[in-house]
Amino acid sequence: MQEVYRYIEECDNIVIASPIYYQELTGQMLNIGSRFQTYFCAEYFRKEKPIKKEKKGAVILVGGGNGKVEKACDTACDLLRHIHCSRIHDLVLSHNTDTLPAAEDAEAVMGVQDIARFFNERQPAMPT
Ligand SMILES: Cc1cc2nc3c(=O)[nH]c(=O)nc-3n(C[C@H](O)[C@H](O)[C@H](O)COP(=O)(O)O)c2cc1C
Known about the structure:
This protein is 41% helix and 17% strand. The chain has a single domain (2-120), classed as Flavodoxin domain (Rossmann fold, 3-Layer(aba) Sandwich). The protein has 128 residues and is of the alpha/beta class. It starts with a helix and ends in an 8-residue tail after the last helix. The chain is globular. Helix 4 links the parallel strand 2 (55-62) and strand 3 (85-88). Strands 1, 2, 3 and 4 form a four-stranded parallel beta sheet that branches. It contains five helices and four strands; from the N terminus they run H-E-H-H-E-H-E-E-H. The structure holds flavin mononucleotide. Flavin mononucleotide binds at residues 19-23, 62-65, 67, 97, 101-102.
């Protein structure tokens, strides 16, 4: 995790990408995400700011069916906020992958391209 924490602290943008399992992020993703609680504790209990750099975030989800996605999206957005993502792109979702593979889902592919544009936008210069 030390390597992951270092990467999180230094990077500019973060994507959480996960299949939907039981309407949630996968267990593997939740295992990693649970370790972000250290940042929540630092900020809310110890009043520290371990992550100095503000980041942009995005969430990409794929689901085999067409059930609910809100829980998975809310969890991913919570995790992104724990790691200091001040701006989060709208959810990019590929649903019904049982019948249409995500790579052939034109709307989802366009959504991913839009995430790339969002991440590459320059922040307006700070007034002097
Ligand atoms: C344990 C498990 C739980 C799943 N739960 C859901 C679910 O709640 N909603 C859903 O849309 N798909 C669910 N799926 C299907 C996966 O999301 C789907 O396989 C995923 O989109 C990957 O698809 P692909 O490999 O065809 O891209 C589940 C799959 C597994 C293995």
